[in-house]
Amino acid sequence: MVYKNIICPVCGGSCDDIQVELKEGSIDVQNACKMGNAKFQEIVSHHRILKPTIRENGKVKDVSWEESLDRAAEILVNAKRPLFFLGSETSCEAQEVGMHIAEYLGGVADSNATICHGPTVMGIQESGMVGATAGQAKNRADMIVYWGVNALESMPRHMSKYGVFPRGYWTKRGRFDRKLVTVDPRVTPTATASDLHMQLNPNTDYELLSALFTILNGKEPHPSVEDITGIPLSVMKQTVEMMKESNFVAIYVGLGVSSSYGKHRNIEIALNFVKEMNNYTKCNIGALRGHCNVAGFNQLASYLYGYPFGVDFMKGYPRYNPGETTTVDLLREKDVDAAFVMSADLVNHIPADCAKYLAEIPMVCVDIAPCPTTTASDVVLPGVIDAMECDGTFYRLDNVPIHFEPFTDSPFSETKSNEETLKMLFEKIKAKKEA
Amino acid sequence: MQALLNTGSTINEGKLAKGGNKYSEEYTKECAVCWMCAEDYAILGCPEKVAVISRDGKHMVAVYPKVTEAMMSGHVFIPRSIWANVVVEPDTFSTGSPRYKGSPVTVEPTNEEVLSAEEIVLKLYMGGE
């Protein structure tokens, strides 16, 4: 049977037009990108984690779900300040249970945003954001700017689905009705496909944005900005003019802006530039969110506790102080003593000092395939694949909630979803804590 | 050679990571790689392997060099992966996000073995356990 309109659980694009046909031992996937197709193949892969394991005296052994949940609960209950890293490749429903466990135990709840667009969120908190849905940008935008993001490789269908090539209501000729500018220190495939590539020097996003802002305000930037950024003033002026002459400018920022020196201040000035540009034409900005439901955690945490990530419950009420209550800082400073990692390969994605400490402390993880985090974990609980084996909610890159339906069932009789696994774990934790 | 390190996605890195193949040889070949321009590669003496060393000299990772026109002189790129993160600095400027882009590193020729992702976890992070 062919299943249509399946949601892809890989990146923030949340493509909703995937077509799959499940056969005996194989799966045919249509419309997905290279990354999406690879993830759908996990349904039939031979390396899928199908049994819970625990590490005892340095040796890893298969155990029952009951025993693994028991051991996981013991680790988390015995910790003074456990870290809950509630990854993005699962539903908001599972993340919500994880946050409630963190609150109950007085731990810290964080997610991929902290090592992804966390600074972007902080920039938005500083200056607000002129945003638009992906559909609005598709129908209206006649100028696209990819700043610090290689869309073709990090969100491969963005250009064809929303950004550059699709025919929109006001851009009926697709690519021919749009100008495309890329700002990146590398010559990426996205830059190659652009009409204009501003190959700026690394860590000079703030200076370039300041210069564009100055030009927009009718003033001449200091000539030293050419040497600093590596971009001629004439090109900066041409870019500002192109923007002003467009009917609708859509700017997409990536980690090139939020992870370079300047961090959230780069985002802050970009957001202020966009606000100013709206005096001349319609202009909006959005983040290309690489991880699947990374936006969902921000929405959920803000809705439930008032803060978008790095939520610390140690004092009995939610606190948020990036640099102190965020995963990398907590691990670098050795400020947590156990970790629960769900649907994210945290060990792979953090600096060595943090990864080393994470491997030292007791760790429980939920995952579907072997990876550095499962290797370093003391308890591994098999994960259920959201949008394939269970239903739930993702938030797309533009913060639009997307409900997904499965096309097959969980391979485990013990659990139907990661949400259910966490609910079982929560029950065990409560029983141990109250005993 | 001093350089600024950039890290980020490549489509094959994404394909292999999302497909659960982080322990495959293909993943090592895709990600344990340091991109640089031909001029910088020549300055290094065209080595078969290079060591990328963090600014504080505390961490080093051996990877294969890749010569490409995508890079400007003085800049190197390692795909987002465990190899890149060995030398990414853990300070976050009080944002929670480490210095994935734009940190100074030293790149030099090496004879050190290029470790797999699993070997990095076991040898570097778990102390050979």
From TrEMBL, chain A:
A Pfam family hit: Molybdopterin
Official protein name in the record: Formylmethanofuran dehydrogenase subunit B
Keywords: Oxidoreductase
GO molecular function term, any single one: formylmethanofuran dehydrogenase activity
UniProt-listed GO biological process terms: methanogenesis; respiratory electron transport chain
Gene Ontology CC annotation, any one: membrane
Ranges for domain Molybdopterin oxidoreductase: 48-413
UniProt lineage: Archaea, Methanobacteriati, Methanobacteriota, Stenosarchaea group, Methanomicrobia
Parts forming coiled coils: none
TrEMBL record, chain B:
Domain called Molybdopterin dinucleotide-binding: residue spans: 5-102
Domain of life: Archaea
InterPro entries: Asp_de-COase-like_dom_sf (IPR009010), Formylmethanofuran_DH_dsu (IPR012040), MoPterin_dinucl-bd_dom (IPR006657)
Protein name: Formylmethanofuran dehydrogenase
Pfam families to which the protein is assigned, alphabetical: Molydop_binding
Molecular-function GO term, any one: molybdopterin cofactor binding
